[in-house]
Amino acid sequence: MYTLLLDTIYANGRPSTRIWSGIGKKLTSFVRGLKRTPTCPVSVNAYWRDEHTHGPDMLRLGADENFNNDIICGVLRRTPMVDIVRVQDTVLLGADDPTVLDWGAREGRVLLITHDVRTMIDYTYARVIAGQAMPGVVVVRRAVSWAQAIDNIVLLVEGSRQDEWEGQVLYLPL
What we know:
Elements: E1 4-11, E2 14-20, H1 22-33, E3 60-63, H2 69-78, E4 83-86, H3 97-107, E5 110-113, H4 117-129, E6 137-140, H5 146-159, E7 169-172
Parallel strand pairs: 3-4, 3-5, 5-6, 6-7
Antiparallel strand pairs: 1-2
Helix pairs in contact: 2-5
């Protein structure tokens, strides 16, 4: 229980304390009622960035709806100018895998995926076999720690160019 010490009163030469404990219950219920909000700009849409803030060959990323937002936050903290857009920040929220892959191809974004690996990879290879545009897919397995995933994605962003990823599927960790 939280207590608030209001003041100290000296009675008969000895300090005695007046405490109002009612605020403790109110404060506790207030703190418990707070909702956790994201601490990073995960909904930052990178469309406004021009070639002066990131190079024309810098890797452009798109994060699948199931991709871990904590990893995205870590990547943005380490490399603030990375061009990354989450599917849920577009009109594609709840779209099926072929639609997300088509969006990634139209936007020229390498897609980051995690949980729906089987279906997404099948659709990815089907696009490549059909000769359709496929800017690349990076698969981050569930067993990979957040720190390792962040390190690997930052390494990819800083060490590769967009044109290197056409038709490629990469599994992390490296």
